[in-house]
């Protein structure tokens, strides 16, 4: 048996590990791209236990669903960045033409008929905000009832959409369904904990800039290290 044949299993193992490394790098790159985008009112983070699963929450600031706080997950395909489109599933029931009323899955084929390597996850996240901010009657629906009401009885559609908003708010403080430390959770406002943070945020910019940070051993007006006399 030749030396090359003996070494082949190790080579295959190394190739597999390298592919995993490249895949993890691709996922980290996608998340970095998400972080640098100016995405309004939507927050996502990969699971601490599974980088193919991302947790997200959308705060809707305008439109029919204004005021809603909708949780969702993004699941990347096993062979990402190749393969099909990532899957978005809402954890809150959302009455919407593009959201499956039974599974909560968002019908992404309307905007991403074919997922390519050049597609970015941040654009998918941006699409989530878009469909909750402005409902387009031209969308190819997955929820036929919602689509029909949008066309024939807008008032009733808006009423059911507002019920989705109300339900989402009633679940904001629910305990997490997983022990994953990256799952996004919220707690009620605590005056002792949050008031100092709020005051810091609303502090005038000039005061924050002039605030002393740390210690200095340099005498004002001098560039010589340790020129400042020690004070006790």
TrEMBL record:
Q: Where is this region: Disordered?
A: 204-232
Quote any Pfam family the record assigns: UQ_con
What protein is this chain from? AKT-interacting protein isoform X3
Listed CDD domains? UEV_AKTIP (cd23814)
Q: What gene codes for this chain?
A: LOC107266529
Q: Which residues form a coiled coil?
A: none
Polar residues compositional bias: what residue ranges? Answer: 219-232
Q: Where is the UBC core domain?
A: 22-170
Q: Which domain of life is it from?
A: Eukaryota
């Amino acid at each position: 048996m030749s030396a090359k044949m003996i070494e082949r299993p190790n080579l295959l193992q190394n190739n597999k590990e390298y592919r995993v490394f490249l895949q993890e790098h691709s996922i980290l790159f996608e998340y970095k791209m998400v972080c640098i985008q100016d995405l309004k009112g939507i927050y996502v983070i990969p699971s601490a236990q599974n980088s193919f699963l991302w947790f997200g929450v959308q705060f809707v600031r305008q439109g029919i669903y204004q005021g809603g706080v909708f949780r969702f997950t993004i699941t990347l395909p096993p062979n990402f960045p190749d393969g099909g489109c990532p899957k978005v599933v809402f954890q809150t029931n959302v009455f919407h033409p593009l959201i499956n009323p039974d599974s909560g899955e968002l019908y992404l084929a309307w905007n991403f008929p074919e997922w390519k390597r050049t597609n970015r996850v941040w654009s998918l996240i941006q699409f989530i905000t878009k469909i909750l901010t402005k409902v387009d009657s031209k969308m190819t629906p997955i929820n036929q009832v919602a689509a029909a009401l949008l066309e024939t009885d807008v008032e009733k559609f808006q009423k059911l959409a507002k019920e989705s908003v109300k339900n989402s708010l009633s679940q904001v403080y629910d305990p997490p369904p997983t022990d994953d430390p990256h799952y996004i959770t919220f707690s009620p406002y605590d005056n002792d904990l949050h008031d100092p943070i709020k005051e810091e945020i609303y502090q005038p910019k000039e005061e924050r800039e002039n605030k002393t940070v740390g210690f200095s051993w340099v005498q004002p007006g001098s560039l010589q290290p340790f020129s400042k006399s020690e004070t006790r």
